[in-house]
Fold this sequence. Notes:
Helices cover 61% and strands 5% of the residues. By secondary structure, it is mostly helical. The strands form two sheets. Strands 1, 2, 3, 4 and 5 form a five-stranded mixed sheet that branches. Strands 6, 7, 8, 9 and 10 form a five-stranded mixed sheet that branches. β2, α14 (233-254) and β3 form a beta-alpha-beta unit. It starts with 5 loop residues before the first helix and ends with a helix.
Amino acid sequence: MTAPGRRSSTFTRLLRHGFTDPSAAERLLEGPELAPIRVDPVLLDALGATADPDLALLGLVRLVEAQDGDSARRELLDTLIAAKPLRDRLLGVLGASEALGDHLARHPQDWQVLVTYEAQDLHPGVAEFEQGLADADDPVALRVAYRRCLLSIAARDVCGTTDLAQTAAELADLATATLRAALAIARAAAPEDAALCRLAVIAMGKTGGHELNYVSDVDVIFVGEGTEGTEGADESKAVQAATRLASHMMRICSETTVEGSIWPVDANLRPEGRNGPLVRTLSSHLAYYQRWAKTWEFQALLKARPVAGDLELGKEYVATLAPLVWHAAERDNFVPDVQKMRRRVVENIPAAEIERELKLGPGGLRDVEFAVQLLQLVHGRVDTSLRSGTTLDALEALATGGYVGRADAVQLDEAYRFLRSMEHRIQLFRLRRTHLVPEDDADLRRIGRSLGLRVDPVRELNREWKRHASVVRRLHEKLFYRPLLDAVAQLAPGETRLSPGAARERLVALGYADPAAALRHLEALASGVSRKAAIQRTLLPVLLGWFADSADPDAGLLNFRKVSDALGKTPWYLRLLRDEGAAAENLARVLSAGRLAPDLLLRAPEAVALLGDGEAGGLEPRDRAHLEQEILAAVRRADGGEQAVTAARGVRRRELFRTAATDIVASYGTEETPAVADQGALVDLVGGAVSDLTAATLAGTLRAVVRDSWGDTLPTRFAVIGMGRFGGHELGYGSDADVLFVHEPREGVDDQEASRAANAVVSEMRRLLQFPSADPPLLIDADLRPEGKSGPLVRTLKSYEAYYRRWSLVWESQALLRAEVVAGDADLGSRFIELIDPLRYPAEGLGEEAVREIRRLKARMESERMPRGADPTLHSKLGRGGLSDVEWTVQLIQLRHGWAEPGLRTTRTREALAAACAAELLSTEDAATLDEAWVLATRVRNAVMLVRGRAGDTFPSDGRELAAVGRYLGYGPGHVGDMLDDYRRTTRRARAVVDELFYGA
């Protein structure tokens, strides 16, 4: 019986060491099998270091149980405790592979292969593996010996003794040794056939490339010849004999026995595939490849490597076909054929699996391999250093030769190693052929821990996987769709001109709807011998890829031409794009993301300097103090009111562009930085930046108007109060500025003079901010004032006080929740805020009649203000679960509880929502639901303005515009339906919360 307190102590230690089922682990530790070492601290430490401590412990107990007698058990346990290399290897394998744990339970002496720690054991080659398989003279024995060798590879892998490339090479070497052993068994079973023929086994795919997985089909091609002196009928008999040997060899490896199978041997890459003969002579192979082979078959031959049988014949096969492989890029439609093959692979993935497909999906391993192979075939004709069958070696050679950017190659190398390591760990668990990332958290936790992600393995694994897949997707398209590849591939010796036909095909492949227009833009930009044209030719291949990554590549290229035409003669423009890494990519993103940002930029193209990372650059929006300082300085320098406000509006245009560019780049991500995951942070950034900019513009305009007509002092104190989204720091790109105007006559000034001055100020401010110019207008909306449009535009503080005391309605109290001083006399503004605080935060909260009135107003607004024909499930402002729903719900909470909860006394929706949650006025789940819907609806409104160049509350109906909104919101091509479904789902959940909290349903 366990002593009191003992269980909880052990239980805690097991949890601390990473066990997920401490109760079961405790029972196993207290069993008789581990009694001699139960209390030894190194055991728990070693188990805790494994990928799955529970699995490792269970495997160890099974292995101890399977030992033959007490002395064998003692030997195993004593060695386990005394020898750290064995302990790490054995427990590491048991914690990573259920299948190898089963093997050890069936063959309990095989643990001893992990004891040796000699140099040849650390990095064995084909010879060492052949020695390990030497005693296997039948298929069952071969499987046992194969698993024993595999055990040692896996142990070195999970312990970090070998890296990904070494592990993959060892697996390929073990496959080579196994094919040789299987062929030897087949030869021994049919000595007459063996005497009749020469048979060469050519490894293809990952085996040929020396980069095999734990469980994969082993792709082969067979070449058969008669022995010396055979011809005619004798050659036919030799091929038949070779076919029987090859078939038997395949069965030895592939068939299932009591010890399972090794792996399928797949000969479908042979000429004519499964319809062609299994074995051909060398001359037959050559004739096929000269006359009938398709482009992908030459691509496959990149990895051909003789591994078993008659190695001289195998080498002759590779040497004979090599010239055909390295001239495949001269074939018509070579690049499009390779692209089409890649697209077909992706299209054939089941929709339910594509997001989990590690190998074949977008951003998967095959993207790296295809891109590298394409570049090898194009450039390997003249550069023999590129002719490697191993992906990572070929990638390094491409970078060394300058065919791939060094930084791109490093990122691709890191991503490929991570994704292949993930694939290895997934397959190692049950030794099954799969490339799907599991969905179960326990599996993800084991994989994450096995890759060294220990803090939060599931979250860290998903984050790293998505990050690397994103890098691969981005760089794969940059390399794979490089528009000049067609030209390079189809050049005759000495020719350098891009053929129009090939260029059009390339542009269509990149997603350009009007390739003829795109070609005209390219010709205008890059033709000639000037320095400008030379730099454009360097930039354009990369820019075209970035434009292609957007929803509207044509618009991106057209806008780039317009900017280049405007700035082409300025010495800094092309230098900026060439030398400052971020500038060119940022410009490409901004120019192809919609109409607003390019329109703002083209009105003053020098703002492109903001996109760089030099002294003039910087996409971080400037704070209000800096903006006011710049605008007020410009106002002081101006000759009159119009010139002053023109300067202020110019600053506003530039800063609107800066904010839009920041938003677009953060939403799309760049090659260096992934898209910002926190959508709420982007909403806050845009809302704060545009609101600060509007406040600074109003402050500058007010100063300009006063100075122009009254000099330094206006006859009345004057303040501007921000309302609605303006007061809440939540303005969008297309928002009007909701305001109230308040004044107070200075001492000795009569009320009428003060009132005339205040009204004149407002009238002139509105005129100057709206008069036609190259800069976007700023519309001032004062409809939230007392009495609405029927009331005076400006009131004195006393007038406001009298009105609110006698006539104020509940909707006005609600509107005042967003009131904040934004410009003018700070003291007057603060006294206005003191005046309205009791109205917006009424003592003891709202009465029930007031609550019912607010609900009636909201219901009437829903029924009357929704535009005719609009889909209420997709209207971001007035629709179900949209901005209005969330804001009215939050504001009702503020009116009811703001008097008692200081945190609710804020003009900002998200801050008030967080404060209400902290005060337990709604659940954390409900708060998160409302916040998510509000952020999403705000992002949709911002997206519509960025894409269409005009404000809107609904998703665009135009397909390209809708796709551009999707890209801004993080949805890839073809996922517009998912975006709309997600929006409806998010807002539907929010409306359910609104019905409960606002309407009391």
